[in-house]
Automatic annotation (TrEMBL):
<keyword id="KW-0378">Hydrolase</keyword>
<dbReference type="InterPro" id="IPR007295">
    <property type="entry name" value="DUF402"/>
</dbReference>
<feature type="domain" description="DUF402">
    <location>
        <begin position="56"/>
        <end position="156"/>
    </location>
</feature>
<protein>
    <recommendedName>
        <fullName>DUF402 domain-containing protein</fullName>
    </recommendedName>
</protein>
<dbReference type="Pfam" id="PF04167">
    <property type="entry name" value="DUF402"/>
</dbReference>
<dbReference type="InterPro" id="IPR035930">
    <property type="entry name" value="FomD-like_sf"/>
</dbReference>
<dbReference type="GO" id="GO:0016787">
    <property type="term" value="F:hydrolase activity"/>
</dbReference>
<dbReference type="InterPro" id="IPR050212">
    <property type="entry name" value="Ntdp-like"/>
</dbReference>
Length: 167
């Protein structure tokens, strides 16, 4: 287990590095909003210069993400708002617990995701096929079980009151 890091100070800059299968998938700048030594919250703009249409939601330049990472939980919860501040919903990533090194957050994506619409009417489990194809269950069965438990927990919470109740 990584050595615990000191909490980051609110208002300071941070870098988020999202890893997948040990490789950096994306890196972006963020601002620290909260860190109690367990949960760290940052805000960041949509990190791509183009729109990404998932069918159930579109992420676009100008969108703002308030991202909650835990040092002891197997997921991250990202609240997504449009440029006018209207809530789009929550994108929940199943990840290993975040590792904070200096002002860098390292989050390893384990393929499973959950989308919850702003009004809670849509709760979608995503990428279960990618998770199965990743081979994680064979390489690291404990991590695979933790990932499935995390997705189940996120779905249960989303259907019972929304991801905001995790905070």
């Amino acid at each position: 287990m990584p050595t615990p890091s000191a909490p980051l100070s609110p208002g300071t800059p941070a870098v988020v590095r999202l890893l997948k299968a040990g490789r950096e998938k994306v890196r972006y700048d963020a601002a620290v909003r909260f860190d109690d030594g367990v949960r760290v919250t940052v805000t960041a703009p949509w990190s791509l210069p183009t729109v990404r249409d998932f069918g159930f939601v579109r992420f676009a330049p100008g969108d703002t993400f308030t991202e909650h990472y835990w040092r002891d939980r197997w997921y991250a919860v990202k609240e997504v708002r449009d440029p006018a501040g209207a809530m789009k919903g929550w994108y929940c990533d199943v990840t290993r617990p975040v590792v904070v090194r200096g002002a860098t957050l390292l989050s390893e994506d384990l393929d499973l995701d959950l989308w919850v619409s702003a009004d809670g009417s849509e709760v979608l489990r995503l990428d279960e096929d990618e998770f199965a194809a990743s081979g994680l269950a064979g390489r690291d069965p404990d991590a695979a079980r933790a990932a499935v438990r995390a997705l189940d927990e996120l779905e249960r919470v989303a259907r019972g009151g929304g991801p905001a109740s995790l905070l």
